[in-house]
Amino acid sequence: MVKQLLLASALLVFSAQSFALSRIEASVDKNPVGRDESLILTVVADDEVEASRLDTSPLLRNFLVGRTSISRSTRIVNFSSEKETRWQVLLAPRDSGSFTIPAFSIDGVRSNPIEITVSAESEINRDTQYLYVTSELLSPLVYVGQMALYKIKLYLGLDLQRGEISAPELAGAQIKQLGDDKDGSEIVDGRRFRVIERTYGIIPDTAGELEVKAPVFEGDVLVPSPRNGGMFNFNESRPMRVSGESRTLKVLDKPADWQGPWLVADLVALTEEFPDHIEEFTVGTPITRTLSLVATNVDETSLPALEPQLPPELKNYPEKPERSSYLREGQLVSQLKLTQAIVPMEPGTFEIPALQVAWFNPQLGKRQLAVIAPRTIRVTGPAKAEAAALPPQAAEPQGWQWWPWLAAILGLGWALTAIGWAVTARRWKADARLSPAGNSRAGENERGFMQTASKSNAGNVHQKAALAELKRACDGNDGREMLSAVLGYLSLRQGESVTLESAGRLSLPLAAALSQIQRALYGSDAAQQPDGAALYKAIQMLGAEANASASRELKPLNPG
């Protein structure tokens, strides 16, 4: 019961807070207005209010007040209620001139006053007055290569059927639209307009005072048209063409003593992602490093390339840089991201040098540096020969011709081994039937054989699972998954930890397959794809070699 009372009290408080009057907004449907025209005054309160609370008597001084209609509405969104009371008052001006619709006050909340212009003409052609374009240079002074933000707004007081806005024009500059159009509304001179807002980025290539030609709107709008002797009004489509005002952009040249790539931005940051949780790295194991260059109010194409330097013992396999840009709080943010795989070739302690990017700060008018500090890494493991890192890619038609013959020979050896095992098993059984002692020896041999087979079977199960995982990675041609899976499988198969360099020494086809995958992942040719089929075929050939070796070792077990 207490909980229900508390809940009811909370709801009452919530309702009181939600429905409290906080805003009154007044607007008219036309301004200016002709001497013989009428206009509609709309007053909206964000709460449920009695109709008599709106006092329209101050309007009688300059207008004839006609009928007044009132409507109320309630909208519930996500358990939040919004109430509204709307008055619509028909007004006719008593005379021509400028008049003020005073502010309306309810419970201490006031609306905005509206200045009304009444023309001496009986009617007003308001097509161009209710459809116009404005433009604004947010950065009227920039440097060469610096992005100037240019904003345009299309004000629509009429219903739009179709239309297009051209881009601004400026010789010797790059111009691109930033983000999507924004569709909203504004009240201008007491009238509500639909406003379509668009932002452009202008990057000048030359210095001087440049004229930005304003965009042009062309389209069709619906305008009221009296028909049948003026008894009824109908909307008809009418073509319209309006343009804004041209603007002047002042562009400064870069400093005469500037050296290196020119980058001018409001803010520049250079960051690094590195596996700091690893204290020591292994020879031949790739280290993933990601560099990010971020700048504000600069185009992504203006960001300079990142060229990190490494000692010769650390091989660098960079991926293709990624460039992107987006709008945040009215500013353009551009980013250049570079991911590189660093493969240590020798054990020891090495320093990755610092990386810095010079940029010009237009706010301070001076050169600044974005810096990534140097770092030291420790590498353990045996030295890796250069050829083992990336074996030369042999011509496939010649390099693979002898493998079908070797596979056939190895298959024949495996068949002979199976026959030898069968003969040995029959002789053991015969010995067991002839002698009790032999029976005992056979039992011991069988138990030892079963224990060995049990361990071998357990290992085979894990190897089969690892091989199946490798097969899935190869079928998907996922380079990183293939490298991880092949090292796991080979480690189980060899009974010791296997690295990429030791795996490459197992066979020439395997070394070639691993080399191709590393080139596809970390090389400069972005069109190259990891070849999973070649890797899996090389692993299958390793299995054939192992079978041939086992066959040669088991032959002495077969009695003459």
From TrEMBL:
UniProt keyword Transmembrane present: yes
Keyword terms: Membrane, Signal, Transmembrane, Transmembrane helix
A Pfam family per the record: BatD
Protein's name according to its UniProt entry: BatD family protein
Start and end residues of each DUF7939 domain: 464-542
InterPro entries membership: BatD (IPR025738), DUF7939 (IPR057699)
TM annotation in the entry: 402-423
Signal peptide: 1-20
